[in-house]
Task: structure prediction
Amino acid sequence: MKLTNDNYDLTVSSEDELVRLDKFIASYYEEFSRTTVQKMIDQEYITVNQKKTKANYVVKVGDMLQIAELPITLQDVIAENIPLDIVYEDDDLLVINKPSGMVTHPAPGHYTGTLVNALLFHINQLSNTNGLLRPGIVHRIDKDTSGLLMVAKNDYAHQVLASELKDKTTKREYLAIVEGVILNQKGTIYAPIGRSAQDRKKMAVVTQGKDAVTHFEVIERYVNATLISCRLETGRTHQIRVHLAYINHPLIGDFVYGHAKENEYGQYLHAKTIGFTHPKTGLWMEFDSDIPEPFIQKINELKNQLE
Result:
């Protein structure tokens, strides 16, 4: 759920009825804990059919839920002395190599330990195009995905970089280790992505979803796994994870879309390369990152199985 000046209306459908209001909202928006939702209901930031209600209200088909903007201020997001791997920095932008396990930006009920908390400590000026919770954040990668991110220091740089993403001119290449052996050397997955009807916390390939395109190429095959590179043409939420699961090759370590149990490292997905046109100079810039040590260890483990 994005926090802007708009309200968010949600209509209850047949598969969602007879569920408590607080449980329904918390399952639909992963940014909100159930405790946060209960407080929002009590303070009338969440209403049903434009009326105040209680957390234990059981939603019915056709109910219209209104979710208002939370009153978030800068004091909610604190600067923290968390080490940053800065690959590049100038007066307009940074390129950061984010470790697996770090959330990109704060969300209601989760304000510490994120990349934004670290940026506020180390960087004096960040763009505010995306609001108080996401200063400087042009795009994000999942908590358990490592790799390169662009960060804008001013609103002009932010707008130019965001436009490049929208126009699909930004280069974003990932390394991934997937379950099973992919036989085709190259492939492109064209499959629209939207929120799953079965599990509101997950994304899925759905007919009415937004267009999503992922290109992949096999780098190395193992006994029952494959190392691939992926290039994003679009940037939907969890796109690579959803697309690879859709073709029955989910990421190893992905306990949401794959077959793994929740683990310390998470999915083996690394945003290795990023390229873009500098918003001020107009020059093409491209950056590459080292593969994280746990990722290398997994590759070596898989190679040993071939011997």
